[in-house]
């Protein structure tokens, strides 16, 4: 089932999320719904706060590479980035919660992360390159951070009207969104 993606301006995107345990209700269905939602929006990652759940859960699927090799696909529960190393590199990032805005973000190319998978098996692994970048972006979501937080004050001011338009629902997407004003009406 495809779920609405929470838009910029909703307070859930600024919450530091809480850990869950293996008894979290309907977790496997939630994970399946998150993948359906991410694929329908042509994303490569999705964090639970983006579907209005302030829990430490995110998914990643970088898709096939240019040679047709399988991409990096994983579920991360209660993740903790232990270490980030290497020389930061820029990449033009976007976010499903902040449509039509893409900006260069500097991130370190190597991470070490601990997490539980969807079967509650604990992992600690080192990840590099694009998968590491996607993980860092989604990890920021469960820490209440957005990629736009890395922008300078002048750039944020230049984008203010776009941010305001998104939070008011004045944006078009090919996927269902939930805007902050819709939350207040309930």
Automatic annotation (TrEMBL):
Cofactor(s) recorded in Swiss-Prot or TrEMBL: Fe(2+)
Catalytic activity field: N-terminal N-formyl-L-methionyl-[peptide] + H2O = N-terminal L-methionyl-[peptide] + formate
Any one GO MF annotation of this record: metal ion binding
Active site: 138
GO BP terms in the entry: translation
List of residues binding Fe cation: 95, 137, 141
A Pfam family it matches: Pep_deformylase
Keywords from the UniProt entry: Hydrolase, Iron, Metal-binding, Protein biosynthesis
Documented EC number(s): 3.5.1.88
Cofactor notes: Binds 1 Fe(2+) ion.
Function: Removes the formyl group from the N-terminal Met of newly synthesized proteins. Requires at least a dipeptide for an efficient rate of reaction. N-terminal L-methionine is a prerequisite for activity but the enzyme has broad specificity at other positions.
Family matches, as HAMAP family: Pep_deformylase
Family to which this protein belongs: Belongs to the polypeptide deformylase family.
Name recorded for this polypeptide: Peptide deformylase
Organism listed in the record: Pedobacter quisquiliarum
């Amino acid at each position: 089932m495809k779920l609405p993606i929470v838009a910029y301006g909703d307070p859930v995107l600024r919450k530091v999320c809480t850990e869950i345990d293996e008894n979290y209700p309907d977790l496997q269905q939630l994970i399946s719904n998150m993948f359906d939602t991410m694929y329908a929006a042509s994303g490569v990652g999705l964090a639970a706060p983006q579907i209005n759940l302030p829990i430490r859960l995110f998914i990643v699927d970088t898709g096939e590479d240019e040679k047709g090799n399988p991409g990096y696909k994983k579920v991360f529960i209660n993740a903790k980035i232990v270490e980030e190393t290497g020389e930061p590199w820029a990449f033009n990032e976007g976010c499903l919660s902040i449509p039509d805005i893409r900006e260069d973000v500097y991130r370190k190319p190597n991470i070490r992360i601990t997490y539980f998978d969807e079967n509650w098996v604990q992992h600690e692994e080192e990840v590099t390159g694009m998968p590491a970048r996607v993980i860092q972006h989604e990890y920021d979501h469960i820490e209440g951070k957005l990629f736009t937080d890395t922008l300078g004050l002048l750039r944020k001011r230049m984008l203010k009207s776009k941010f305001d338009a998104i939070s008011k629902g004045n944006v078009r997407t090919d996927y269902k969104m939930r805007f902050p004003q819709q939350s207040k009406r309930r």
